[in-house]
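anyone seen this seq b4? input:
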Amino acid sequence: MQKDKGFSLIELLIVVAIILIIAAIAIPNLLRARIAANESSAVSAVRTINTAEVTYSTSFPTTGYAGTLPNLGGATPCVPAIATGCLLDSVLSAGNKSGYTFAAVGANAVNGVNTTYTAGASPVTFNQSGVRNFCSNEDGVLRFDPGAAGSAPVTTTAACQAFTVLQ
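predicted toks r here
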């Protein structure tokens, strides 16, 4: 009598169980890595917004800091103007990038010149794209706060200064 070649059902079930155990260990680590990458990108984007705001206020001294985030960007080809500073790429100036929503608001107008601004970032989907909110204002200090589901980017100086300084 000839013996059949191949794997038994028990052997196949053991292999599938091992693969599922490995996947159960690896998937949470992958999600944490993606959250960390999104948060790192958000911090970098807030720093970029800070630089763009300073450049904008220098380029347009009669306006001061940009009134809104789209004022810092512009469509390609971009011509620098008060409404389109051409300082940010079109993705970031649209307000969404790498799982985060961004906002920047100029404030405290004195004779039509914005003397302060606040830039904020919050995760699009809390606990999937990120778990912390970030902000900065004209002092250039980055701050963070544990996020919450449904949170929006911080756009006031007082709210931003209540956050913890990012080390």
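Residues 9-165 form one domain. The mean pLDDT is 92. kinda curious what u guys think
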